Amino acid sequence: MLSSLSAAVSGLDNFQQDMDVIGNNIANINTTGYKDATVQFATSFSNTLASATANPVQVGTGVYDQAITNNWATGALSSTGVTTDLAINGNGFFEVADASGNKYVTQDGSFSLDPNGNLVTAGGQFVQGLTTTGTVGNIQIAAPTGSTLNSYTINSQGVITMNLTNNTTGATSTATAQIYLQTFEDPQALVSQGSNLYNNQANAGASALGAPGTNGTGSIVSGSLELSNVDLSSEMANLITAQRGFEANSKVVTTSDQMLQNVVNMVQG
Predict the structure, then answer these.
(1) Could you tell me the residue ranges of all domains in the chain?
(2) Which residues of the chain have pLDDT under 50?
(3) Which of 12, 16, 95, 165 is the most buried (most CB within 10 A)?
(4) Please, are residues 61 and 90 in contact by the beta-carbon 8 Å criterion?
(5) Which pLDDT belongs to residue 95?
(6) What is the rounded CA–CA span in Å between residue 26 and residue 20?
(7) How many CB atoms lie within 10 A of CB 180?
(8) How far apart are the first and last CA of the chain?
(9) How far apart are CA 79 and CA 69, in angstroms?
């Protein structure tokens, strides 16, 4: 009876954890680039009541959350018509850096240009890639001094082509930069930092930052965003399962308590 009580309590704890994950998935159904998470359950240590080579007698002690894993499959792409909105059609991640130089990765491509022409995230982090000077750093879409930026495009390889006009001579020219992507051997090792950003890149087995289309990164789709890959119908089914599991474990706790009380009454009687 004590074993059933502890097993049921572990079930309550872990179904509550499952509910937390499901609730977070549903809450992020409209979050750009969000990846669905799933709780992986595993059995706890079993008490061996009698040893036998062919058929040991064991009673389990409950359940625990072995892992919470993300489904990194690409979500549906939604067209926005905004050139700086970028979706990744593949497994790549954008690399971004904050003002202190700390690096993060994200699959949320809802970027914009700051007053200096830097391509930035909604939180102000700088998108990384090959700059117009030929070095890897903050991507900037801006005209050099003495010129005017007329227009720009971003292709599937992340190449930014800027059409410029010389303010003195009126001559036209182009300048290019390229947004780079990164992949990981084990994206499950990435650690969420909020605002759709992840770090712990080294432990996730980061590839070299490079051009889209290499190292399995996939291509870039300008004017689109990747939607959350949460399947609402599946989450609702999981929600019902978690609720029923929680209720059933609650019943086991109540029944075990009643049986223990009966034993106590018998002893006292």
Answers:
(1) 2-72+230-268, 77-226
(2) none
(3) 95
(4) no
(5) 98
(6) 10
(7) 21
(8) 20
(9) 28
The token pair at 51 is 């040893």
Residue 38's pLDDT is 96
- Residue 247 has a pLDDT of 96
What are the strands, taking DSSP E only, across the chain? Answer: 37-43, 46-50, 57-60, 63-70, 77-79, 86-89, 93-97, 103-106, 112-113, 119-120, 126-130, 136-138, 147-154, 159-166, 172-179, 181-182, 191-194, 197-199, 219-222, 224-226
Q: Give the per-residue pLDDT at 188.
A: 96
Q: Which residues contact 68 (CB under 8 A, 6 or more apart)?
A: 21, 37, 38, 39, 40
| Sequence-ordered list of residues with C-beta below 8 angstroms from that of 195, at least 6 positions apart, any chain | 121, 122, 123
The predicted pLDDT at position 52 comes to 63
Between CA 183 and CA 268 the distance in angstroms is: 67
Spatial separation of the C-alpha atoms in residues 224 and 128, rounded to whole Å: 19
What's the residue count for the chain?
269
Are 54 and 191 within 8 A, CB to CB? Answer: no
Q: Which residue has the tokens 């070095």?
A: 135
pLDDT value at residue 1 = 56
Closest CA relative to residue 152, chosen from 127, 123, 117, 185: 117
CA–CA gap between residue 40 and residue 237 (Å, rounded): 16
Q: Looking at residue 210, what is its pLDDT?
A: 95
CA distances (Å), origin 109, targets 7, 16, 18, 140: 44, 33, 29, 16
The residues, ordered by sequence, that sit 6+ positions from 71 with a Cβ below 8 Å of its Cβ are 35, 36, 37, 38, 229
